[in-house]
Specification:
single chain; Rossmann fold; 7-stranded mixed beta sheet; 30% helix; globular
Length: 225
């Protein structure tokens, strides 16, 4: 019985990119603008890892040194630019990356898919591969802003708010250096037109309407901090 339940869960999860998170060309335009906004926190020469890379829009758009992209679905590699090193594995497995070698780890709409205990393990592994002062950049649905829609995604397991996630990072050996409780809208689904100019205008606003996601930038603490 337990094996049958696990098989059913595996089938449901493997269908995620055809049911819930299908390819949407408009996201490329959005992520080019978002990557330009986030670039100030990313070392343009330093190595970078994207967790849960999906269709690779962030890694394809950001300027960095060596790039790794992690996802469990090997079919998504076809969307990634040449030069991005694929890591097809679970984020719960040890990363085949040298300790203290990365400048940046990035994750978007990622940690909510794991339990709190699993999230703590992933944060610890990200901290291991980051160099001292290396940065973790996280974009997440904000339960405080979108409680009614947060669990519309059947793979969401843990609810995070901007304040709660910042505390989670502090408890996991990071120092938050920048946070935006209202970063982007909750979802890109819908028929509204998208342009880089509109996204850049939206990101320039002091208060962003319809925002449902937060963004946090944190640095790896060293023992002397």
């Amino acid at each position: 019985m337990r094996e049958a339940m696990e098989d059913s869960l595996e089938i449901a999860l493997s269908s995620y990119h055809t049911v819930r998170f299908t390819y949407e060309p408009r996201r490329t335009t959005v992520w080019k603008a978002l990557a330009a906004y986030l670039q100030k926190w990313v070392d343009p020469q330093g190595p970078l890892l994207e967790l849960g890379a999906g269709y690779g829009e962030f890694s394809n758009s950001i300027t960095a040194g060596d790039k790794w992209a992690l996802d469990m679905n090997p079919e998504l590699v076809a969307y990634w630019h040449d030069g991005i090193k694929p890591l097809i594995q679970s984020a719960l497995e040890p990363l085949p990356i040298e300790t203290g070698s990365l400048a940046t780890v990035f994750a978007s709409n990622f940690f909510e898919h794991f339990t709190l205990e699993q999230g703590a393990s992933i944060l610890a592994e990200a901290r291991r591969v980051l160099r001292p002062g290396g940065r973790l950049i996280v974009v997440q649905p904000n339960f405080r802003l979108e409680p009614r829609r947060y669990f519309d995604d059947y793979t969401h397991r843990t609810a995070y708010t901007d304040n709660g996630f910042q505390d989670f990072l502090a408890a996991s050996g990071y120092r938050v250096i920048h946070a935006e409780p209202r970063f982007t809208p909750f979802s890109m689904k819908g028929g509204l037109p998208v342009s880089g100019a509109l996204v850049r205008l939206y990101m320039s606003l002091p208060w962003r309407p319809f925002a449902g996601q937060f963004m946090v930038v944190a640095e790896k603490l060293t023992r002397s901090n």
